[in-house]
Amino acid sequence: MEEFAYCDKSLSYQVRAKDLVDRLTLDEKVQQMGNSAKGVSRIGLPKYEWWSEALHGVSNVGPGTHFDNSVPGATIFPTVILTAASFNQSLWKNIGQVVSTEARAMYNVGNAGLTFWSPNVNVVRDPRWGRVTETAGEDPFVVGTYATNYVRGLQDVEGAKDPLDPNSRPLKVSSCCKHYTAYDVDAWQGVDRYHFNALVSEQDMLETFNRPFEMCVKDGDVSSVMCSYNRVNGIPTCADPNLLKGTIRGEWDFHGYIVSDCDSIEVMVDGHKWLDDKGDDASAQTLKAGLDLDCGNFYPDNLKSAVLKGKVKEAEIDRSLNYLYVVLMRLGFFDEIQQYKSVGKGDVCTKQHIALASQAAREGIVLLKNEGGALPLSSTKKLAVIGPHANVTWSMLGNYAGIPCRFVSPLDGLTTFGQVLSVVDHVIYQQGCVNAKCDNDSMIFQAMKAAEDADATILFVGTDLSIEAESLDRTNLYLPGYQTQLINQVAASSKGPVILVIMSAGGVDIQFAKDNEKIRSILWAGWPGEEGGLAIADVIFGGYNPGGKLPITWYKNEYVDQLPMTSMPLRPVDDYPGRTYKFYDGPTVYPFGYGISYTNFTYELTSSPHSLLFNLEPRQHCYPQNHTNKDQGSQCPAIIIEHSECTYFIDVEVTVHNVGTRDGNEVVMVYSAPPPGIDGAPIKQLIGFQRVNVAAGQNVKVKFSFNVCDSFNIIDAAAYNLLPSGAHKILVADKSATLEVSFDY
């Protein structure tokens, strides 16, 4: 082996990978093309399991990772939707760094691989989707920004400089952005992801579905992308050369490998009946389209036959294997990365990691209602803690979770904080329902009696993986079973203030609770991870002032009665309303970006209005636009961004004043709104955000610099990326501060 070029550290990874692949026979090559690569002992190539998961902590989903006596658990952070609500980019990256450290530690003791198929960067198009918990919400810019930071946290080797050749950049672990693309129907009213054909316009593809993946590749330099089960416009995503070779590798200049969602090729054959392909046909189709690795056995079982029958070149296999082995070399699989050699089990579940899990939960919690300053709770003799989620543990973890370092349930957290702070003399606990499904009302009476006898009542309700999950979309947005009855009857019986804590992934229609005067405060705590109970208690008793904002719109249930989940357009179509805050301005329970605090903030835009005159390039043409008012528009309505250098930036400074009596965190959210009357343009779009801490009575200046073409563009119906002329607006938060920006050509 010393004479093998693939073992020579002085050579480039590409040269070494080629030497390795060239030494393999066809039989040996195909056995490396599934997630459980067999290895080749005759040349010293070890076996390798590609499938590990790390969505919000090292998971034991997938055969690549396991827990045992040497490493019994890992830090489990809140599910992504709650972490996203923090709108804290440094937190997102820091979580990735911790997860990758624990992953490296588990790899070093033989409990994990180095390739982790996370994060999920699909956009929440429909509130019924069962996998809302895995994503960063409904805004493609937020999802892409989350992905970029989390991927950088997972992959970046501290201190390593970016080389001229990205394929030689070392990796701490390998991250994978999934599921590409237009995937957000799992199982709804008889339609499932194994048969669904997503009919998507190029406008929506470019603007919404693909944007987080593009950011993940271009900004995050992710080393893997996973294609999805569904078809897009008739073609399975894993067999579409335009999506894989053309877009990911071509347009985005991707450096890594493309993997299928597990058994996706089999799904093409048995579910989609794609071209009536058999195993070798489907394997040849996907390989030629650009799929490098099969999570499953279709490649190992069928690729040799496909080559021998002339359906695909053996060189196509070589190409994919080269991509795979370059990634493994970047990971140090063959050589080790010295700075991670000493990382071990003592680096898993450290106090610092557990503290970060608690911080992530606190920062994500959203205060939705707080009438009369009911929160934070002050001294309470008797506290009733009621509800099916009041004493949960595993339900706080969500899916793709491993075994946690420890659990702190809401009941334990409230009891502990109450005793330590000496603010609660006695805690009364009643479950109210057996579980989240709340199939009967047999336990509600005892819950009512507890509330009658308490000075304050905290109700914990919501959903769990039996209600919304992978392969389980919701059919409505109501709380499950008898939970609404439980809330109303307990609130009616309560002697003191009622605080409602919603633990869910997606939004729920709680308009009844919002309108109920007996329910003084409402918190959304998502599925807050292993430290969720402490984080919730810290917020309720005032140790932490909540500052999270909703990363999704909370619709009224009547919204989902107006359109099927399978209707893919984002813009209103016929009688169907638009989707997400960008294209829907109807009634909601709570809008995207909503969240209040125990203090009050005001905004001041200290920048002046901007007016930019663009000089068109030689032979650059103006582009027409459709206006709802035919008399609107200028002589040069828009330019195509691809034809422009776009070096213009607009600097904006926002002063955030804390006019309350408590220190607090505020998320400054900046939107752009296009000139009025452009047909199909978004109502507004988020272009920047930053979380800041502002002391009581003080102010903080927050600076943004916006590239004109990235921040004020629109995608038209022909899928052109345009910069319209005219008066755009910059909006801060809920239009509390506005600034006009004009472009002309």
Automatic annotation (TrEMBL):
Question: Keywords in UniProt for this one?
Answer: Glycosidase, Hydrolase, Signal
SUPFAM superfamilies for this protein: (Trans)glycosidases, Beta-D-glucan exohydrolase, C-terminal domain
> Is Transport among this UniProt entry's keywords?
no
Residue ranges of the TM segments: none
| Classification via InterPro entries | BXL (IPR044993), Fn3-like (IPR026891), GH (IPR017853), Glyco_hydro_3_C (IPR002772), Glyco_hydro_3_C_sf (IPR036881), Glyco_hydro_3_N (IPR001764), Glyco_hydro_3_N_sf (IPR036962), Ig-like_fold (IPR013783)
- GO biological process entries: arabinan catabolic process; xylan catabolic process
- The Fibronectin type III-like domain sits at 666-736
SMART domains from the xrefs? Fn3_like (SM01217)
* Single GO MF descriptor: alpha-L-arabinofuranosidase activity
Oxidoreductase in keyword set = no
Q: Which Pfam families match?
A: Fn3-like, Glyco_hydro_3, Glyco_hydro_3_C
PANTHER family in UniProt: BETA-D-XYLOSIDASE 5-RELATED, SUGAR HYDROLASE-RELATED
The name of this protein is Fibronectin type III-like domain-containing protein
